[in-house]
Structure formats: structure tokens, C-alpha cells
Amino acid sequence: MATTSPIDIGKLITRKPGLRGGRPCVAGTGVSVMRIAGWYKQGWIPEEIARRLELTLAQVHAALAYYHANQEEIEADLDNEAAEYERLAKESEQRKGNQA
After folding, report:
1. Please, which residues have CB within 8 angstroms of residue 26's CB and are 6 or more apart in sequence?
2. Could you say which DSSP state residue 5 is in?
């Protein structure tokens, strides 16, 4: 029977200035905690998130733990992303209206 070394869960989430604007991400991936938290808030279960993003369940739970421990930070990121989406959607609609 093979034994595996314990995983330091504190190393599952990292920040790099050049990756996703310095937002916290699952280590070794470009998947942000914000993205996982957003899907979780939409009702996705951790197993589904892991399967869709090709992550381990431990990685998803680490991201969710980070989200719950730093909810204000991640919620602000989600709010900023939603506002930027709305701004771009309005801008796109205005361009379409000007072309008509």
C-alpha cells in the first residue's frame, strides 16, 4: 500500500501579481477563488465545480475555505466584476444602437 505525504492546505491557495490581477487562485492553476465562490453562490456543489474545472475536491474546498474566511474581499471582487460586466454590456448596446 502506497503512502502519500500530507498536503499543507495553506499552500493550496496562492497570489501572484501577474496572475488574475493578483487575486487569490488555486495554486498551480489560473482558477481564482472568486470564480469558485461565484459558482458556489449560484448553487453549484463542490464536486461539480471540481469536475468542471478539473480540480481536486481538496482544491475546491480550500478555495471555499478562503472565501468564507475572507468573504468581504471576495464579495468586493464579485461586485466589481458584475459592475464591469454591466458597464461593458451597456457600452456594447450603445455601439449597436449607433450602427443601426
Report:
1. 12, 13, 32, 33, 36, 55, 59, 60, 62, 63
2. P
DSSP character at residue 27: T
Give 24's contacts (C-beta < 8 A, 6+ positions apart): 13, 14, 15, 32, 33, 34, 63, 66, 70
User: Which pTM was predicted?
Assistant: 0.80
Q: What is the mean pLDDT of residues 68-77?
A: 93
Taking the C-alpha atoms of residue 27 and residue 19, their distance in angstroms, rounded to an integer, is 11
Helix segments in the chain, DSSP class H: 33-41, 46-53, 57-69, 71-99
Three-state secondary-structure class, residue 52: helix
Please choose, from the candidates 44, 38, 22, 23, the residue with its C-alpha nearest in 3D space to the C-alpha of residue 75. Answer: 38
